C-alpha cells in the first residue's frame, strides 16, 4: 500500500498511532511500528526521564521507524526536545501550539516534523513553518480537540484544498472502511487513537479499557472548551464539569476542578468515576481488547475489501 505517507516515513501502511497520554508507551508504539504502521510515544504524560526510557525501550523493541508526539504547551519542552534530539528520534509530531517555534530546530537535527491541526487556516501556517506533513483532526477525536467542532468529514476536504502537503486524517477513524472514506476525501493516510488505546499493548488501565468497550453512542462529549477542549466519557467527573459549564464557570474555576493528575487517575490508575477519561466517538464501535497485530490486520483487510467492493460496485447503489 505505497503512497506519499508510506514513502515519507518508510513504513508499510499509511497508518499512524495517536500519541495519547497514559496510553502510548513503548509497548504500543513498537507494536504499531512492528506491524507496518508508525508508532508514536505520547510524551504529554511523561517526565523527561520517563520519555527517555520509553524511547530507549522502543528502539530495543523495533528496528522500524517510530516517533514521539509532543504537545508544544508542555512545561519542560526544552528538556523534552533535547532528549528527542540526543536519542535521534526520527520523527516528531507536534501539537497544541505553533509549529514555527521548533520545526526548524528539529529539522536541523535531522528530525522530520509533522504538525496536528483542527482547521484549514492552520494548514498554511504549517506550510510556512516548513513541516513535512500534517494531521487534520476532526471533532470526533478523543483527547484535546478543536474549539470549532469541525467534523473529520468536513475538515479533510477543506484542508486538502488548502495545502498540497502530505495529509493524514484523524478523528472517528478506527476501521478499514473509515480509512477508505478518509482517503477518498483527500487524505494520504490516517492517524488512529482510540482503537489503539483499547489494545493489549496500550498502557491504559484494564478497567478503563473494559469501560470503553461498553460505551454507547453519545457516551462521550466535548468539554472544557474554556481551557483546552477534550472529549470525555460521561462519568462522575464529567458530570461535575458539565454542571459547572452550564452555570457559566470561568476558566479559573474549571482549572481548579480539573486539578492535577486527573487523566492519570482515570486512564492510567483506573479510577473510573473521579478520573478524566478521554476517548473518541469511535468508542461506541469498540467492543473488544485485541492485540495491535489483530487491529492492524483487521483494518487492512477491511480496507482492501471495501476497495474491492467499490471497484466492483455491485454492493453499492451509485
Using brief descriptors, characterize the structure shown.
318 residues; alpha/beta; TIM Barrel; 2 domains; three-stranded antiparallel β-sheet; 14 helices
- The whole-number mean of residue pLDDT values reads 94
Structural class: alpha/beta
- Rg, nearest Å: 19 Å
Which CATH-level-2 architecture of the largest domain? Alpha-Beta Barrel
SS element count, helices: 14
- Name of the CATH homologous superfamily of the largest domain: Aldolase class I
CATH class of the largest domain: Alpha Beta
**Which residues sit in consecutive blocks of at least 5 with pLDDT less than 50?**
none
The largest pleated sheet is described as: 8 strands, parallel
Q: How many domains in all?
A: 2
Order of helices and strands: HEHEHEHEHEHEEHEHEHHEEHHHH
Helical proportion, percent range: 40-55%
How much strand? Answer: 5-15%
Assign the CATH topology of the largest domain: TIM Barrel
Q: Strands, helices and their partners?
A:
Layout: H1 4-9, E1 15-17, H2 26-34, E2 39-42, H3 48-61, E3 66-71, H4 77-86, E4 91-95, H5 100-108, E5 112-117, H6 121-129, E6 133-137, E7 143-144, H7 152-162, E8 167-170, H8 176-184, E9 189-192, H9 194-197, H10 206-212, E10 220-223, E11 230-233, H11 236-246, H12 251-258, H13 262-268, H14 292-312
Parallel strand pairs: 1-9, 2-3, 3-4, 4-5, 5-6, 6-8, 8-9
Antiparallel strand pairs: 7-11, 10-11
Amino acid at each position: 500500500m505505497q503512497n506519499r505517507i508510506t514513502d515519507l516515513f518508510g513504513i508499510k501502511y499509511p497508518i499512524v498511532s495517536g500519541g495519547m497520554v497514559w496510553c502510548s508507551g513503548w509497548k504500543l508504539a513498537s507494536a504499531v511500528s512492528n506491524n507496518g504502521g508508525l508508532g508514536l510515544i505520547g510524551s504529554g504524560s511523561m517526565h523527561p526521564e520517563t520519555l527517555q526510557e520509553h524511547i530507549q525501550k522502543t528502539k530495543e523493541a523495533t528496528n522500524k521507524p517510530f516517533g514521539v508526539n509532543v504537545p508544544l504547551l508542555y512545561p519542560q519542552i526544552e528538556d523534552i526536545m533535547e532528549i528527542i534530539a540526543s536519542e535521534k528520534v526520527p520523527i516528531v509530531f507536534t501539537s497544541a501550539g505553533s509549529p514555527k517555534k521548533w520545526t526548524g530546530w528539529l529539522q536541523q537535527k535531522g528530525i522530520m516534523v509533522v504538525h496536528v491541526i483542527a482547521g484549514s487556516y492552520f494548514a498554511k501556517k504549517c506550510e510556512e513553518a516548513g513541516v513535512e506533513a500534517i494531521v487534520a483532526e476532526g471533532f470526533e477525536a478523543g483527547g484535546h480537540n478543536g474549539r470549532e467542532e469541525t467534523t473529520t468529514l468536513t475538515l479533510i476536504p477543506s484542508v486538502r484544498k488548502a495545502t498540497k502537503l502530505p495529509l493524514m486524517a484523524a478523528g472517528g477513524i478506527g476501521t478499514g472502511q473509515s480509512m477508505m472514506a478518509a482517503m477518498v476525501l483527500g487524505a494520504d493516510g490516517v492517524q488512529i487513537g482510540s482503537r489503539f488505546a483499547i489494545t493489549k499493548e496500550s498502557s491504559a488501565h484494564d478497567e478503563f479499557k473494559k469501560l470503553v468497550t461498553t460505551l454507547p453512542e453519545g457516551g462521550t462529549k466535548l468539554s472544557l472548551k474554556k481551557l483546552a477542549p477534550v472529549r470525555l466519557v460521561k462519568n462522575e467527573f464529567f458530570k461535575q464539569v458539565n454542571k459547572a459549564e452550564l452555570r457559566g464557570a470561568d476558566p479559573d474555576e474549571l482549572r481548579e476542578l480539573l486539578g492535577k493528575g486527573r487523566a492519570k487517575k482515570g486512564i492510567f490508575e483506573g479510577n473510573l468515576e473521579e478520573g478524566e477519561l478521554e476517548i473518541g466517538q469511535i468508542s461506541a464501535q469498540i467492543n473488544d481488547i485485541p492485540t495491535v497485530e489483530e487491529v492492524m490486520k483487521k483494518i487492512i483487510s477491511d480496507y482492501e475489501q471495501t476497495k474491492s467492493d467499490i471497484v466492483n460496485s455491485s454492493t453499492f447503489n451509485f
